[in-house]
Design a protein that fits this description.
This protein is of the alpha/beta class and 399 residues long. 39% of the residues lie in helices and 14% in strands. Helix 11 links the parallel strand 6 and strand 7. The radius of gyration is 20 Å and the shape is globular.
Length: 399
Amino acid sequence: MPPLINSLASCADSPASTLQEALSVVPVSRVDALRLIRCPDAELPELLAAGRTAKERFKPGIVTYSRKVFLPLTNLCRDYCGYCTFRRDPTDPGAHTMTPEEVLAVARHGEQLGCTEALFSLGDKPELVFPEMRETLRRLGYKSTLHYLEAMCELVLRETSLLPHPNPGLLSGEWIERLAAVSPSMGLMLETTNRALLAPGAAHDNAPDKVPAKRLRTLEEAGKRKVPFTTGLLIGIGETAEDRVDTLLAIRDLHERYGHIQEVIVQNFRVKPAIPMAHWPEPSRGQMLRAVAVARLLLPNINIQAPPNLNAPYYEELLDAGINDWGGVSPLTPDFINPEKPWPHLEQLRLRTEARGFQLQQRLPVYPEFIPAAMAKSGLLAKKLRAAADTRGLARRAA
């Protein structure tokens, strides 16, 4: 009996059926996932093989990515996360809110380079605490940051071929519906379900929008409205292996109820010099590989992504663990969340992907399985989607 199977012998299910279920694209149980995510190094190759096999049953032969421009609409934010260098107070160096002219200039440049996604990242409702942001919005002619975001998504949609994908933080059901009219998909990282990370000195100390229940509520509101949503977990911010499994299970529960989770990102924390967590240990390569493989086995029919720039130089090994997507990669703009980690060149990404036996293909910000429902709607968004997607639901432009 292989060692990994043998190590599961005390599980409620028989050992053979546990691995057989994983290889048959049936989600593993919580107890099995906890054992797998803590497996010893000697058993890691078998875990990775199970993850890769599950990926191949889901989407064989290909790995996707989205060619994007990164639009940091505003870096003002009312949350103070211990790992973040993106956020600013209004008086901090580098504090900035993009103008409509800046947004459109970057989007048009990206269009010339074959980009199909306009990723909007921004601080969560900064106008609630910063009068400077309220003044900026007044000068621009908008009531709130979300009103401004909505207008900028509509601007990019109307004036370019790019499709917006906003990541605006917590959202009400009403705002999800409004943004869904101008973007085919959107995102919110769950990050963790562990409330202990809200404690003084922890990663989410003084971050009111990182309460897990609030983030789960936004994800559920999106599910009720059938809006394709990207979410995910952060690895290495003070959570335990058990927390990682429970976060994935919370995502699985939402998807089983609503069927709207288009992608789960497994993102690893990286140390930066000027953050409260500057001396925090980064997750190891083995921890990342285990988390990805267990994510695949818990979520066999959901797209699993891990950022290549945060996992250099070994990022191609993540393909062996079961990812089927590299996320957004930009030929133009930096990763403003992790500016010290440049995107890989697309040709290098293609070569490394092919070396692992997969074909790299460019997708849209919304995944192919969610496109028919979006195309069935009327209006500008559906028209733009029909122009952007090929017969498989991938981007018309070649990878």
